[in-house]
Recover the amino acids of this structure.
């Protein structure tokens, strides 16, 4: 069988199995051991923090996500309280920056999420 025929056969097999078009989605969250049911550092908080990192402002990060500034502020404040970690340096009209702790947390979270997602994809493919 030629390479073209093999690729066509493989493509047909994938299209014949609707499960092959699915992918697992891992939702990672970091919580304080002393408050495991409180607010968590998860996908939404990470996205807000990345926005602050990129835009230099919580207001701009919130707008980018289609979220009211007051909601973004409340989410971050609740997460800081639950984790016992300050995430942002707020400088009023001059914007916000991530704290060193937040930068470390965001980096660890992002790396873990990426690794876990890759493992989940590999395991899912092999399970099918």
């Amino acid at each position: 069988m030629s390479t073209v025929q093999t690729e066509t056969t493989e493509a047909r097999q994938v299209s014949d199995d609707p499960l092959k078009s699915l992918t697992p989605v891992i939702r990672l969250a970091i919580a304080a051991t002393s408050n495991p049911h409180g607010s968590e550092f998860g996908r939404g908080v990470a996205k807000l923090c990345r926005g602050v990192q990129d835009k230099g402002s919580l207001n701009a990060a919130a707008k980018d996500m289609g979220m009211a500034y007051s909601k973004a502020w409340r989410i971050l404040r609740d997460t800081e309280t639950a984790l016992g970690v300050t995430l942002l340096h707020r400088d009023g009209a001059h914007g916000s920056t991530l704290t060193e702790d937040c930068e470390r947390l965001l980096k660890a979270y992002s790396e873990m999420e990426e690794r876990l997602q890759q493992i989940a994809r590999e395991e899912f493919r092999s399970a099918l």
